[in-house]
Amino acid sequence: MHPLKLKQRRAVCRILVAQATRRMLFLSTAGSRRVTSALGAGGYDGRRSFRLGLLGSAIAMLLLGSCSTVERTLVAPPQIEGATFVGNKVCADCHANISRAFPASPHARLHLDASKAGQYGCESCHGPGSKHVAIGGAGREKFIINPGKDPQACYQCHLEVNAEFHLPEHHPVTEGKMNCAQCHDPHGLDIMKPAGGLAMARRNESCAQCHREQTRPFVFEHAALREGCTTCHNPHGSINPKLLTVRDSNLCLRCHAQVQRSGQGASFYIGNIDHSGYLRYGTCWTAGCHASIHGSNTQPYFFY
Q: Which of 59, 74, 78, 163 could staple 127 via S-S, CB 3.0–4.6 A?
């Protein structure tokens, strides 16, 4: 197996095993609780759940160890058959605008092996450029690698991102319907933002290109949008619906503190509002609650 493919599988393995470990630990805890009641009643289900939970935890930890103790391999630059490395100065002859901005980019600091050609700069991502130069810059699809169209060049370094794109909920990059350069500027000062627009406006601009309804101006704006969409969403991938970083009301409680007040009924307050009767609904954005969670033009509590 190619070492890069092996590294990608290991990254996916770590994420999936970590999720399995949390689930198994939860099952073992729940099983131990059922054991206490089942033993008193002479039952068998509690003991069986407890044993399964312990067995699952042991298997998950074994797999986690097998994923995390393997040797790491070096990252190799992309290869183009028959082509050789020419160096950054040759690229700058034609790509002057990119070459002027690129030294300030975090990607410019990438040095796989500074003693060898192609281990840093342009060709560490685009592959050897001799054939591309020989035909005057033509043949982009055949003689040069364009990470904007093929994310494999990005995945060689960003293994954790590749793993996230294989989670149940993800943007369709691996399917070829999107590419990394739509949201990131690989040559610019800030690779976490797209190439165009003002700095503050660009915070959500990459998301706004597709999600216009959620990012349009509102009379009553959800303050979380000022921090950026990634406050609540993981754009690469998530195990939760809608790419949420947390799947239930705990997502909101990271900012909106929940306080339990003593007294009759031990009510739960968020702000000055008693939310005890709303807990059974599940998430905060379910129908009848804060359904218009991104913002509203009519209601300051985002009910509609």
A: 78
* Distance, CA of 200 to CA of 133 (rounded, Å): 38
Report the relative pairing of strands 273-274 and 268-270 from DSSP bridges.
antiparallel
- Domain locations in the chain as residue ranges: 3-68, 88-146, 217-296
Q: What percent of the chain has pLDDT over 70?
A: 65
HSE-CB at 122 with a 13 A cutoff on CA atoms is 24
Q: What is the pLDDT of residues 17-54, one digit of tens each?
A: 555 555 444 444 444 444 333 334 444 455 555 555 55
Residue 57: is its pLDDT beyond 90?
no
Say what the alpha-carbon torsion angle 96, 100, 103, 108 is, to the nearest 10 degrees.
-30
**What is the rounded average pLDDT for all residues in the chain?**
75
pTM for the whole structure: 0.65
3-state secondary structure the chain: CCHHHHHHHHHHHHHHHHHHHHHHHHHHHHHHHHHHHHHHCCCCHHHHHHHHHHHHHHHHHHHHHHHHCCCCCCCCCCCCCCCCCCCHHHHHCCCHHHHHHHHHCHHHHCECCCCCCCCECCHHHHCCCHHHHHCCCCCHHHHCCCCCCCCHHHHCCCHHHHHHCCCCEECCCCCCCCCHHHCCCCCCCCCCCCCCCCCCHHHCHHHHCCCHHHHCCCCEECCHHHHCHHHCECCCEECCHHHECCCCCHHHHCCCCEEECCCCCCCEEECCEECHHHHHHCCCCCCCCCCCCCEECCCCCCCC
pLDDT bracket for residue 260 (50, 70, 90): confident
Q: What is the structure's pLDDT at 17? A: 53
